[in-house]
Amino acid sequence: MSSVVIIIISLVILFMYAKDINKKKFSTKEIVMIAMFSAISFILYMIQFIRYPQGGGITLFSILPTMLLAILYGREAGLTGGLIFGLLKLLNGAYVVHPAQFLLDYILSNMALGLAGEFGREKKSDMFKGCLFASSLSVLISIISGVVYFGQYAPEGMNIVLYSCIYNISSAGVEGLLSSIILVLLPIKRFQKVLKLSTN
């Protein structure tokens, strides 16, 4: 039953995304930048410092380019970049136990990173809040996936929710926090000037 609910909610979200994208006309430059940032995320994803069972771990700030893309080019570009990044992850060996789990771990959790610019991109504090929000939402989606589909891996006697929280926060959560800190230290204004982007 939980899988059916997850699939329905996922399809609704993807439908809303598709509807949003239809209104947005990406320029050739934006398409190239989305592809480039997604590719960089995937390359960094392949550099893993710590590898957990069932596909988790800590990578070389692989989520940072997708969040930066969202801040520089907006939500639609960020969501699209996250979607492409999630699909590219399949090339490095997918750990899929159910279609709903695939949607959570490879699609929605990565698309969530595209919401990094939702709190604004004028102030560093707003960008930091946006990055924390996006990475936290991504981790939350992974936690839900862990509770529903990977509870059997929890140590005997340990609460499944606690296990999933520890597993995901100690990996994706740590990487999300560090990536958020690094991102706000980057010269975003200079990037926007070089790329000739409007901050409105």
Automatic annotation (TrEMBL):
Any one GO cellular component localisation term in the record: plasma membrane
Keywords, comma-separated and alphabetical: Membrane, Transmembrane, Transmembrane helix
Bilayer-spanning residue ranges: 6-22, 31-50, 56-73, 80-97, 132-154, 160-186
Single annotated GO MF: thiamine transmembrane transporter activity
A Pfam match: Thia_YuaJ
Residues in coiled coil: none
InterPro entries hit by this protein: Thia_Transptr_ThiT (IPR012651)
Database matches in NCBIfam families: ECF_ThiT_YuaJ
Protein name: Energy-coupled thiamine transporter ThiT
Organism: Paraclostridium bifermentans (Clostridium bifermentans)
